[in-house]
Amino acid sequence: MRTQSKYNASLQSAVGLTDAQRQTAEQKFLDVMEYALGGASAVRGAYVEWLAARSMRAENPDVPRSAEETLAIARWEQAADHATRAVFRQMKIATQNAFFELHVWNSRTH
């Protein structure tokens, strides 16, 4: 668990991996995300911004997106896609339906 950063990742729908392989993949995903976004706090911040933008989009689908929303969504999704592809390629994970989930918790409660 990444206590200092208040988040972790879990690899979903990756059939045939051992627990050790899954944990290695999850750590590599976080490492690539931190490198791409500029550190642990930047990963958490980018995820929270992405989640907020997606939530606003779901609640108000007819309202045009702001530049900030568009940037937040693109920044997170590009970094996550890059990290996923890099880890899958490096570890030779071929499961097409596999994906990473980020779990972020409130720093005031943990």
First-residue to last-residue Cα separation: 13 Å
Strand content: 5-15%
**Radius of gyration, in angstroms, nearest whole number:** 15 Å
Shape by Cα distribution: globular
Order of helices and strands: EHHHE
Helix content: 55-70%
Low-pLDDT segments: none
Number of strands: 2
Task: Determine the structural class based on helices, strands and strand pairing.
Answer: mainly alpha
Mean pLDDT across residues: 89
Largest sheet: 2 strands, antiparallel
The neighbouring-strand order within the major sheet is 1-2
Count of runs of 4 or more consecutive helical residues: 3
Question: Brief description of this entry?
Answer:
The protein is mainly α. The chain has helices at 19-37, 40-59, 67-91, and strands at 7-12, 99-104.
